[in-house]
C-alpha cells in the first residue's frame, strides 16, 4: 500500500534529518528501539496514538508536511 510506504519513509527521513537515532526517537515517544525499527521497516503498524506521538516528536503533520510550514 503506497500510503503505508510513504509514512514509513517520511518517519525515517525526518528522524535522520533531525539527527535522531531510532533509540532517541523511541525514548521520546515511549516505545522501544526495536518498535521504531519495526515501524520504519513495515513489520509493525503503529496505532494512531503512537503515530501522532511520532509526528509530534518529529514536528511533522499527519499529512507529512513540516509543522513549521503551517
From TrEMBL:
SMART domains according to UniProt: HTH_XRE
Domain HTH cro/C1-type: 11-62
Pfam families in the cross-refs: HTH_3
Name of this protein: Helix-turn-helix transcriptional regulator
Keyword Transmembrane: no
Keywords, sorted A to Z: DNA-binding
SUPFAM superfamilies documented for this protein: lambda repressor-like DNA-binding domains
UniProt cross-references to InterPro entries, sorted A to Z: Cro/C1-type_HTH (IPR001387), Lambda_DNA-bd_dom_sf (IPR010982), TransReg_Diox_bact_type (IPR050807)
PROSITE patterns noted in UniProt: HTH_CROC1
Organism in which the protein naturally occurs: Pseudoflavonifractor intestinihominis
